[in-house]
Amino acid sequence: MIQRYTVLLTFLLPMAVFAQPVNDQCTSVTPEALNIGSTLTFSGTRAGATTTNDGVAGNVLVTTAGVASVWHAFTTATCSDVTVLYCNTPLPATTQWNFLTTCPGDVLVSFSYANFGGLCTNGQFGIQWVNLPAGTYYLPVYGIATSGVYEITASAVACTPGPANDDCANATLIPVSTTCVPVNGTVEHGTMSMQNNACNGATGDTNDDVWFTFTATGTEHTITLDGNGDLDAVIELYDGNCGNTTPIACADATLEAGIETITNSELTAGNTYHIRVFHWYTALALDPTFTICVTGDVGTAVNEQKIKPIQILPNPAADQLTINHGGNGTVRILDLTGRTVWNDRSAVRTTIDVSTWPRGSYLVQVEVAGGTVTERIILH
User: Fold this and answer.
1) Same domain (yes/no): 282, 217
2) Are 315 and 285 in contact (CB under 8 A)?
3) Residue 62 backbone phi and psi in degrees, to 5
4) 148 and 180 belong to one structural domain
5) Relative to the CA of 47, which of 7, 238, 292, 360 has its CA 20 to 30 Å away?
């Protein structure tokens, strides 16, 4: 079982006695409108802050020893990507809360990105929430005995639309092949479609899940995902239609930039299955990209005997592509996202003008009475 740990290091110092700031309690602040394209500036002091009404019983805002908060709040009218920066708060950079919440603090809205020195070039703290729903949010400002003045900016831009396969109903088709033919994918700007399930003894955050689908051509298939950068991918295999799916397998055996694999030998040929992919952590991946493929038999032994080999010339190609196959059938060409870019019924031979197509890899599928043959082509 993979074990992931989060460690919070703090220094506990005695609290000095100061007059309480006017925004010591969340109930004393009035939420300000944070509109798309606008910026709010919050400033004040943390000296004299108390934990009064900071959170409900047991909340981290009242259980963290030696820490008290002051408050600001904002209201968004539409889905927004919100950035909060402490760049103008005097250095050195110190611990900060990395969430938004209610008043008093109860439900925590975890961050999408948070770092020191990434969003603020001077080394101060910056934090972002991507695809934050419209609503009112309270921002606690972390304070210890030695904390003083601060200045914070909060800005909002319109939410960035998620990938085309953000929802199960728009899942990207992965053609089944005898060898791995990778389809490009990303969880960037993905949104949660349903709650998470435990996998390999741990439960990740599905706040950026995306979907793929394939039609089984046999009883056994292998799903292989190859992650990039800091992506800690989890893959889940589902049976059934969207809205009524049943989880049947999952994989979470590696960490960042790992390869996850599901092999299932109890599938039903002809049935459609769905795959969900997400980044394990709540914080979004800086490199959210990956490739994924589905391998297995593309037909029964009888079908394989009926289908004659196909010939694609030239391959790689530049201007024209000629496909020869063994009989009347449908020729379909897909890009690596699973999108059909060309299809036609052909008698034995097809010539296609590809001179204006984007360069890269494509999949050619020829469907005839005996089954389906899939081959990879490259345009250069």
Assistant:
1) yes
2) no
3) -115, -10
4) no
5) 7
**Whole-prediction pTM value?**
0.62
Q: Per the structure block, which two tokens stand in for 230? A: 């800091």
Asked if residue 139 and residue 39 are part of one domain, the reply reads yes
Quickly tell me which residue has 């890899």 as its tokens: 361
- Spatial CA neighbour of 132 closest among 85, 79, 192, 208: 79
Burial of 304 per CB tally in 10 Å (0-12, 13-18, 19+) = middle
Q: Is 104 exposed, middle or buried (0-12, 13-18, 19+ CB in 10 A)?
A: buried
Do 262 and 327 sit in the same domain of this protein? no
| Close Cβ partners of 5 (under 8 Å, ≥ 6 residues apart) | none
Count of domains observed in the chain: 3
Q: Do 151 and 186 lie in a common domain?
A: no
Identify the CATH number of the domain in which residue 228 sits: 2.60.120.380
* 122 and 215 belong to one structural domain: no
Q: pLDDT 10s digit of each residue in the chain, 380 long? A: 454 444 343 434 444 456 899 999 999 999 999 999 999 999 999 999 999 999 999 999 999 999 999 999 999 999 999 999 999 999 999 999 999 999 999 999 989 889 999 999 999 999 999 989 999 999 999 999 999 999 999 999 999 888 999 999 999 999 999 889 999 999 999 988 988 889 988 899 998 999 999 999 999 999 999 999 999 999 999 999 998 899 999 999 999 999 999 999 999 988 999 999 999 998 899 899 999 999 998 753 333 334 556 788 898 889 998 888 766 677 888 877 667 788 887 666 788 999 999 988 888 877 765 566 777 788 88
The DSSP-derived string for 123-148 is S-EEEEEEEEPSEEEEEEEEE-TT--
The residue range of the domain holding 60 is 26-158
Give the residue from 123, 158, 193 where a domain finishes.
Answer: 158
Considering the domain architecture, whether residues 323 and 279 belong to the same structural domain is answered as no
The answer to whether the CB of 345 falls within 8 A of the CB of 328 is yes
Indicate whether 288 and 327 sit together in one domain.
Answer: no
